[in-house]
Structure formats: structure tokens, C-alpha cells
Design brief:
The protein is an alpha+beta fold. Helix content is about 45%, strand content about 10%.
């Protein structure tokens, strides 16, 4: 404080400035003069606060903004309805996991890593997309997800849909404390490693086949598997002049 006045701090008070993107409606910037403004209260009354909140985070990257469309909110509403139905089903004891359950467990740990990183970088739309993918897998499972898996999914969803997750957490799962006071789920690094890799096989840059091999398979083994494919052999001919290999992703024979 100098001379009765507060001195301004030097530089910005935060390490990075992140501005939200511009929302448009009917192809134009929202404004009263254009008559295309959106009243959040109307949408909250019709779809619920969670649905509107999730839609605003899902419709576009945070810093880019996007086009607000009523029809697109319906997709988020259906997602939340599916979440609600999932928790009406009985769970599986963690000690009674099937092979399918273990697959779900691995996907959950990869989703924990994805959502955690996306929240930190404000990539809310891709975090929600990962949760939608996880829900698809949980619904496809031959058994109901294990208790710990259901709890982890709900905690990941809580920042985006705080009301429905709190109700499920307390009223359906029977917890006494708020889900928003629960520790954030942690992922097991061993469970996020892929077991197999699907490698694209190209000849002169054009895709001819794919081969599935254990993750981390050496180049010579991948080459042998790729050359054994009839469609690759047909276009390969003699010994290739050059082989480009990207581990666990691609092999390209230049002839």
C-alpha cells in the first residue's frame, strides 16, 4: 500500500488465462437484437440442471464454443436416463468378477486417467465422451458392473452431473456422506496398459490389412505376421526396399 492506495500486482495473478468460447444459436452470435438468446431457466425446467450443465460442457471445446441446439440436449438427457437405469440393477461382488468384468475394470482405469487429465486441461467435452463410451461398455457386459466399478464411474460423472450422482450415491447406493466429499478415484498404471495391439499393415502407404499381436511385439514378429496375410503377400511381391515400423501401431512395406 502506497500513499493510501493499494499498488497493483506485477504481472497476471494466475499462470495462464483461459477464456471460454462463444456460443451461437441458429448460426449467429446470441444477442437480444437477433432474438436468439437462450434462457437457461427454460431448459432447466424442461430437461433438468444436470442435462443443461453437461450439454454446455459437451457441445464443444471450452475455449472454442459451439452451436447451441435443442435437439442435441436430448442426447445428454438419454445418457443420464441410461445412467439412472444402470443403478437400478443389482451389482456384482468384486470377488466374483467374470472375464468381461475384468475387461470393464481395465476400461474404467483408462477412463479415470482420461477424465482426470481432461478436467485439468478443461477438455470437458472429451471427458464426457469417455464416460459415454464407458457406459456403453458397462451396458454390454454379461453381468452388472462390480460395486467398486459403479462407484468409480459415479465419482467421475459427479463434476458434470452433480445432482443425479448425489441422489444415486445416497438414495440408491445407501451412502451416508456426499459423493462430492469423496476422494477422487485413482487409476492403477498396470491396468491401463493394452494387452493387444491392432497394427495397420500398409504396402507403399496404402492399407492392405491389420494384424493383432501382443502389445510390445518386436518388429520381426510383426513383419512375419503381416507378410503371412494373403492380401499383403499379393501386393508385396519381392523383398521390400524399405520397411517403416511404428511400434504397436503401423508397419509399411515400401516396394
Amino acid at each position: 500500500r502506497r500513499g493510501g492506495r493499494f499498488s497493483a500486482p506485477k504481472g497476471e495473478p494466475f499462470p495462464k488465462f483461459r477464456a471460454h468460447g462463444l456460443l451461437i444459436s441458429e448460426g449467429a452470435k446470441m444477442s437480444k437484437s437477433k432474438g436468439n438468446i437462450v434462457n437457461p431457466d427454460d431448459y432447466i425446467k424442461k430437461f433438468g440442471a444436470d442435462a443443461l450443465r453437461m450439454y454446455l460442457m459437451f457441445l464443444a471445446p471450452f475455449e472454442q464454443g459451439g452451436d447451441f441446439r435443442d435437439a442435441s440436449i436430448a442426447g445428454v438427457v438419454r445418457f443420464l436416463e441410461r445412467v439412472w437405469r444402470l443403478y437400478q440393477q443389482p451389482t456384482t461382488n468384486d470377488q466374483q468378477r467374470t472375464t468381461s468384468d475384468h475387461k470393464i475394470e481395465r476400461i474404467i482405469h483408462r477412463t479415470i486417467k482420461k477424465v482426470t487429465e481432461d478436467i485439468e486441461t478443461l477438455n470437458y467435452n472429451t471427458a464426457i465422451s469417455a464416460l459415454m463410451t464407458l457406459l456403453n461398455e458397462m451396458e454390454r457386459s454379461d453381468q452388472r458392473p462390480a460395486t467398486s466399478d459403479q462407484q468409480a464411474f459415479l465419482k467421475l460423472l459427479a463434476p458434470f452431473a452433480p445432482y443425479i450422482t448425489e441422489e444415486i450415491w445416497r438414495e440408491i447406493l445407501g451412502n451416508k456422506t456426499s459423493i462430492h466429499k469423496e476422494p477422487w478415484p485413482a487409476y492403477d498404471a498396470k491396468l491401463i496398459v493394452e494387452e493387444t495391439a491392432t497394427i495397420v499393415v500398409q504396402v507403399n502407404g496404402k492399407k492392405r490389412a491389420t494384424v493383432t499381436v501382443p502389445w510390445g511385439t518386436a518388429q520381426k514378429t510383426v513383419e512375419a505376421a503381416a507378410k503371412a496375410d494373403p492380401n499383403v503377400a499379393k501386393h508385396l511381391g519381392d523383398v521390400p526396399k524399405k520397411t517403416v515400423f511404428v511400434p504397436d501401431r503401423l508397419i509399411n512395406f515400401v516396394v
